[in-house]
Design brief:
- The structure holds 2 protein chains of 2 kinds.
- By secondary structure, chain A is mainly beta.
- Chain A has a domain of 93 residues: Jelly Rolls.
- Helix content of chain A is 0%, strand content 48%.
- Chain A is built from no helices and 10 strands.
- Chain B is mainly beta.
- Chain B has a single domain, classed as Jelly Rolls, CATH 2.60.120.
- In chain B, the strands form 3 sheets. In chain B, strands 3, 4, 6, 9 and 11 form a 5-stranded antiparallel sheet that branches.
- The longest helix of chain B has 6 residues.
- Classes of the chains: A mainly beta, B mainly beta.
- Chains A and B meet through strand 1, strand 2, strand 5, strand 6 and strand 7 of A and strand 1, strand 2, strand 6, strand 7 and strand 8 of B.
């Protein structure tokens, strides 16, 4: 098994009257176990700015109802640029230039794809998937 | 304006032949600007002990109390399952009131897991069935505590 950890550090000295300093570390485990996730994929893509919903990460039957984690970062630098992240047509949120996100992904069915749409400008997206199952497509 | 940063580090020395080390820091700004997000729900904590759907983030509540979240902007949502039970989870769903029908389960937070995502936070009316609330559904009747925070504009 592999050991992969993800740490979040959230800080601000002026969002509140007292400083905010939140830190959290987790180990990425398989569904309901303490066995580490051992499959990993990553990539860097340019999402066309044509207002079309594209599949960034495809949900597959072998991953359904398993535990997985997704990291996505928008590498654009112009503050007005963003992509809309959705799952099975349900919008999660807008990932603006310089933003990143990290979330569990349970792939409840093969329609639970991670989708991305850039409304007007092309956006460079980096992503990583840590998972425990994938259905391969026959050649 | 406030300056808030969110940093992530993902590391593994053995998930592949070569080590991986992903790190990134985002400064949390309002939509389409370099002005920092300046509102927050604060860090909240809620304990659940039933296998029923709970409206963890009820956007209409924010409306009623004047803490209006502007939908489809740059809000960020943090949720952590602070339980130590790695064999029990909480489903996290986004969508409308009937969590079994109209919401999308995005993932499961087992004990110790956390998530940090952009949040569309679309409020339409006082009818929860039309809003993009966040629902959670525990897998067990064992007590589970969640911490969460929204940073928004």
């Amino acid at each position: 098994m592999a050991t992969t950890t993800a740490t979040l550090t959230l800080t601000s000295t002026d969002l509140l009257s007292d400083s905010l300093s939140l830190s959290s570390t987790q180990t990425l485990y398989k569904d309901g176990t303490t066995t580490g996730l051992e499959q990993y994929e990553s990539g860097r893509v340019v999402v066309p700015g044509d207002d079309t919903n594209y599949i960034l990460i495809d949900s597959t039957a072998a991953g359904n109802d398993k535990h997985a984690f997704i990291y996505v970062a928008n590498k654009n630098t112009s503050e007005g640029h963003y992509v809309i992240i959705a799952m099975n047509d349900t919008v999660i949120g807008r990932l603006y230039a310089g933003d990143w996100m990290f979330m569990p992904w349970s792939q409840t069915d093969v329609s639970a794809d991670i989708e991305v749409k850039a409304p007007s400008e092309a956006n460079t997206i980096e992503y990583a998937l840590f998972h425990e199952g994938k259905t391969f497509v026959a050649a | 304006m406030a300056t808030t940063t969110a940093a992530i580090t993902i590391t593994s020395t053995d998930i592949s032949d070569n080590s991986i080390a992903i790190s990134n820091t985002a400064t949390l700004t309002k939509a389409g600007s370099t002005t920092g997000l300046d509102k927050t729900s604060g860090l909240r904590r809620r304990t659940l002990a039933a296998e029923t759907s709970v409206d963890l983030i009820q956007l209409d509540h924010f409306q009623e109390t004047g803490e209006v979240l502007t939908g489809n902007t740059a809000a960020k949502l943090y949720i952590k399952n602070v339980s130590s039970h790695t064999d029990e989870h909480v489903k996290v769903c986004i969508g409308q009131e009937d969590a079994n029908a109209d919401t999308e389960e995005i993932g499961r937070l087992f004990g110790g897991d956390w998530m940090f995502i952009p949040y569309a936070a679309v409020w339409t009316s006082a009818d929860h069935a039309t809003n993009q609330d966040v629902y959670v559904i525990p897998s067990s009747t064992d007590s589970v505590t969640l911490e969460w925070m929204i940073i928004y504009e």
